[in-house]
Amino acid sequence: MLTDHNKTAAELTEDMDDNLFQRILGDKNHILHALLPERRRSLEYELRPRTHDRELVPKVNSLTESNFLIRQLYKNYSTSDITLPGEVQEICH
Q1: Contact residues for 51 (Cβ-Cβ < 8 A; gap 6+)
Q2: Label partner for 31 (CA 20 to 30 A): which of 38, 58, 90, 93?
Q3: Residue 84 included in any domain
Q4: Beta carbons within 10 angstroms of residue 36's beta carbon
């Protein structure tokens, strides 16, 4: 494991972003917690662990893609993992 002295600025920033996001998720009183999307409906199965239990909001333009919360919500998701709200019914039928 790398120590903070061996990490690049980008790695340090990513670690700080991850820590902040986890604090926002875990603290209902955090000022940014109210900006999180709704929790996603639980599925009967979970194929792999997820970093959060929130709905993925559509990325409609470059401004939303640069939003901290949206970036963190989509982090570690491949495009095949992504089902936006409303698409679940289309897949099931």
Answers
A1: 75, 76
A2: 58
A3: yes
A4: 19
